[in-house]
Write a structure and sequence with these properties.
mainly beta, 2 helices, 10 strands, about 5% helix
């Protein structure tokens, strides 16, 4: 028995044996990765598709296997048998053009897996290579945290942080000199 915890992760491999079928607007849609993932203990299959917008931009979308017809993929197993899988779109994934280190994700996005019943999740994809030298994508998930605005947080923590009820209640001196019309340095670019 393995001690590895695969919760909120998975591995997506080449999908050369898969193709979307059934809709004319899928002619330019390519299934590029497929595999098993685990989201909060629920195992399912996911695929990443690649397509081109009318403006010529490449974009990617994540689909999760479901029982109803959304994206139908024809698949061929190792024995040459053809079968069909049904996938539902769960969200977009974007190429990370701000990658600073090799550990940063190559792709990321926000998805709503399992029909959205668990809320929104962040997804990160990292390009990897199998021991056999084949390309793959390692994916991980985490529940998306809602960000509170700084004002809400300051209001909630005003007693602890010393934030005054209004600016007029601030006892600290004014940061600007009271010279009655100071000059500004016009060389500052903002």
């Amino acid at each position: 028995m393995s001690d590895y915890d695969n919760t909120n992760s998975g591995a997506l491999y080449s999908a050369d044996n898969m193709k979307p079928i059934g809709r004319k607007d899928w002619d330019d849609l390519n299934i590029i990765r497929q595999g098993k993932v685990d989201v909060e203990g629920s195992e399912s299959r996911m695929v990443i598709t690649q397509s081109t917008s009318r403006e010529g931009k490449t974009y990617f979308e994540v689909y999760q296997s479901v029982g109803d017809r959304v994206l139908v993929a024809e698949n061929t197993d190792r024995n040459g048998n053809t079968y069909y899988e049904f996938f539902q779109k769960v969200g977009p994934i974007y190429t990370n053009d701000r990658k600073r280190t090799d550990k940063d994700a190559d792709m990321s996005g926000t998805i709503t897996p399992n029909g959205g019943e668990m809320g929104e999740y962040m997804i990160w994809g990292r390009k990897r290579t199998t021991k056999a030298g084949d390309p793959m994508t390692s994916v991980s998930f985490a529940p998306k945290q809602k960000k509170e605005s700084n004002m809400e947080e300051a209001y909630r923590n005003k007693e602890a942080s010393g934030v005054p009820d209004s600016y007029n209640d601030d006892p600290s001196p004014s940061p600007l000199p009271e010279t009655g019309g100071g000059s500004f340095d016009d060389d500052i670019p903002f």
